[in-house]
Specification:
The complex is a heterodimer of chains A (294) and B (355). Chain A is an all-alpha fold. Chain A is built from 13 helices and two strands. Chain A folds into two domains: 48 residues, no CATH class; 216 residues, Orthogonal Bundle (MetI-like fold). With 355 residues, chain B is of the alpha+beta class. The chains are: A mainly alpha (294), B alpha+beta (355).
């Protein structure tokens, strides 16, 4: 690189490094440190990790908070299951939509994409409240069904697994559609024609050409849905019930209701650990040669 | 019976007639070229044969069965795409095996066929490469092998050499001819390059504005162009526009600004007084400093375009006609800019064109 001495190069790379260190790495280390201490009636509400004791400086770290979590993994299990089911459903619903938009006449594509992003113009909180109005026992669906004489008693549509997963799918569907559209719209039409020319029926063209070439989009979409869905707080809080505890909710309770910062920190650290695995997996999928590359 | 029969096929895109009442037939074992400038409808015609487009009217018959409304995956033809359209997620062997898998060929036979195809295009060492690891020429071979693997009755090639550089193009041209002779499949290829069509094809259909302007063997097309378009598109030409008149011992052409009536060799049944043009190929035009016997036109050398073994001498007549004469560079060296010469030709070498 002509004209870029070591100092100049560092000047270019430094800002993102400083940013990530100050706003990501240091807080993460702080959270990890807090997770090793105990809650206390103090400001801040936890015991120091290092203290001056009889034998000089002592390390007071303990794994008690992690043992506590290990004793009850239901919230993690729920989060993983709900997020996984929501990801699969988003894929099943989102793929045909992304495919249809990518195959639509050019002039239609941007308006159609606009409709996909349109919900973002309203706060998620308000949209989730709208779902309460639709799903609750005196809500739109139950009243309509009763008016039609199809049911006698309201059916339970809210505060259960159904409503949580519905909320997750609804909220995260655009994050699935957009990367899928991205990879499907790049698909070279002549590859589809070549497959048909070589004797592949439309269903086999899809299975043998379109689907494999859209896998990077599938991976990116699944990641964008799965990761935030695991830590989701608003949807399980508003649409869920006592049986649908998710990690985000536990985190909130420990931090705000119990004022147990160390326990909340431990919950967060385990969550970050959980999310690293799918991230690394998806990274490998996405790094494969993209379709249409020379 | 012809292998491919195209019967009055038309295809419109909106108000544009891309293919306009085209009829032609391709025989078994032919290497047939669709030649024309871009936008003449040759690629659309190829896509109609492959089944990617459906004609608005007319019939397409392949090997005796009407395929006009048969989808591409059920037609006994395969196509080599201009962009090659190799599947990026499959290796070379996977690409060649793709069509065989679709027809459910058993694994052992399939592998044998893939190996045979790789050998045919001399790519046996590259079976496990991905398309993005291949050069342009290698991709072209894989695309050819993939299209031939199913042993189609008819192979369609869309500008098969256009993406290659000049030197490779000439080698590949000979290879394509060799492969076509070996496998015996009929090839129909689209090209905008008249040299390519003349050099490869057993027969050529010259297309213009959606229609077939002329069909014939390369020599026929070149020696006896049927229209002004064909004369101008296939090779260079000197065109003299004029009116037919009877004089001396037959029909002649009166050309404005040219003193002599131009004799015609083959205009027997044309009506006197009608407009016509006389086409003389540059290599048929002889130049000499002294006036030869018979027909001759006075002209001045405007420039000499050296092309290696041959040179093209550009001349201007007093009336402003531009003439081109092609000859060995040795012969052209005798002339210089500004020389006043006489251009002449044997009437047998000139062709009358009325369309």
């Amino acid at each position: 690189m002509i004209g870029f001495g070591p100092w100049r190069r560092w000047a270019l790379i430094a800002p993102p490094f400083v940013w990530l260190t100050v706003f990501f790495l240091l807080p993460l280390v702080a959270v990890a440190a807090i997770s090793l201490s105990q809650s206390a009636d103090a400001i801040p509400p936890y015991t120091p990790l290092v203290a001056r004791g009889a034998n000089g400086i002592e390390l007071l770290a303990s794994l008690d908070n992690y043992r506590l979590i290990a004793g009850d993994l239901r919230a993690y299990a729920n989060s993983l299951i709900y997020a996984a089911v929501a990801t699969v459903l988003c894929l099943l619903v989102g793929y045909p939509i992304a495919f249809a938009i990518a195959r639509a006449p050019k002039a239609w594509r941007n308006p159609l994409l606009f409709f996909v992003i349109l919900p973002f113009w309203t706060s998620l909180l308000i949209r989730v409240y709208a779902w309460i109005a639709i799903l609750q026992p005196t809500g739109l669906i139950n009243r309509s069904l009763r008016a039609l004489g199809l049911i006698d008693a309201p059916i339970l549509l809210i505060n259960n697994e159904f409503s949580v997963i519905l909320g997750l799918v609804y909220a995260y569907l655009p994050f699935m559609i957009l990367p899928l559209y991205g990879s499907l719209s790049q698909l070279d039409e002549s590859l589809v024609e070549a497959a048909a020319d070589l004797g592949a029926r439309p269903s086999l063209v899809f299975r043998d050409v379109v689907l494999p070439l859209s896998l990077p989009g599938v991976a990116a979409g699944a990641l964008l849905v799965f990761i935030p869905a695991i830590g989701e707080f608003v949807i399980p809080d508003l649409l869920g019930g006592p049986g649908t505890l998710m990690v985000g909710k536990v985190l909130w309770q420990e931090f705000f209701d119990n004022v147990d910062w160390p326990a909340a920190a431990a919950v967060a650290v385990v969550l970050v650990g959980l999310l690293t695995a799918p991230l690394l997996l998806a990274q490998r999928l996405v790094e494969r040669p993209a379709p249409g590359e020379p | 019976m012809a292998l491919l029969e195209i019967d009055a096929v038309s295809k419109n895109f909106g108000a544009v007639a891309a293919v306009d009442r085209v009829s032609l037939a391709v025989e078994h074992g032919e290497l047939f070229a669709l030649l024309g400038p871009s936008g003449c409808g040759k690629t659309t015609l190829l896509r109609l044969i492959a089944g990617f487009e459906t004609p608005d009217s007319g019939r397409i018959v392949i090997d005796g069965s009407d395929v006009t409304s048969v989808p591409p995956y059920r037609r006994p033809v395969n196509m080599m795409f201009q962009s090659y359209a190799l599947f990026p997620h499959l290796d070379v062997a996977g690409n060649i095996a793709f069509g065989l898998k679709q027809e459910g060929m058993e694994r052992r036979r399939r592998e044998a066929r893939v190996a045979e195809m790789l050998a045919l295009v001399q790519m046996s060492d590259y079976a496990r490469r991905r398309p993005h690891e291949l050069s342009g020429g290698q991709k072209q071979r894989v695309a050819l092998a993939r299209a031939l693997a199913k042993m189609p009755k008819l192979l369609l090639l869309d500008e098969p050499l256009a993406a290659l550089d000049r030197k490779l193009r000439e080698e590949t041209r000979l290879e394509l001819i060799g492969i076509q002779e070996r496998v015996g499949t009929s090839f129909v290829f689209v090209t905008h390059d008249q040299e390519e069509a003349l050099g490869m094809a057993s027969r050529i259909a010259v297309m213009n504005e959606g229609r077939v302007a002329q069909i014939g063997r390369a020599a026929e097309i070149y020696e006896y162009p049927g229209s002004r378009f064909v004369a101008g598109f296939v090779g260079a030409v000197n065109l003299f526009e004029g009116t037919l008149v009877v004089a001396f011992n037959g029909l002649t052409l009166r050309v404005p600004d040219i003193e002599n009536l131009l004799p015609l060799s083959d205009a027997a049944d044309l009506p006197e007084g009608s407009a016509a043009a006389l086409a003389v190929r540059p290599e048929k035009l002889a130049l000499s400093p002294r006036r030869p016997d018979g027909i001759a036109i006075a002209a001045t050398v405007a420039s000499i375009n050296y092309q290696g073994g041959v040179s093209v001498v550009h001349l201007a007549t007093d009336a402003g006609h531009v003439l081109k004469a092609q000859m060995d560079s040795d012969a052209a060296a005798a002339f210089g800019r500004g020389d006043e010469l006489w251009a002449s030709w044997d009437p047998v070498d000139a062709v009358v064109i009325t369309r």
